[in-house]
Amino acid sequence: LELVESGxxxxxPGGSLRLSCEASxxxxxxxxxxxxxxxxxxxxxxxxxxxxNGDATNYADSVKGRFTISRGNTKKTVYLQMNTLKPEDxxxxxxxxxxxxxxxxxxxxxxxEYPLWGQGTQVTVSA
Length: 127
What we know:
Helix content is 0%, strand content 46%. A hairpin with a 6-residue loop joins β4 and β5 (45-50). The N and C termini lie far apart (37 Å). The protein contains no helices and eleven strands. The relative contact order is 0.33. The strands form two sheets. Strands 2, 4, 5, 6, 9, 10 and 11 form a seven-stranded mixed beta sheet that branches. By secondary structure, the protein is mostly beta strands.
């Protein structure tokens, strides 16, 4: 089981990027998905999560109102739409997953709750 992130790159302040997290050889149906990032010199932090059933999302205060997590139509992909990017958003972005679940558990931003991780994609926000 593998997760692969894509969509990172260099963008100017105020710009947008859409990150993708694709599952190989399985679907993400029933999986809780978290997007995390590691900023230079800082610990990995959770920034967006989507519940296993898709009915709940949560965002870190630092990205609330600017980032949106969503599932793709293929059930193998989850996206992180990032708008109004700032230089302080620069870092490596990871998706993580746990599941499948059929009910009863809502995840948090604790990285230890997610056994599946992608390799990360670099996002650089600079003029």
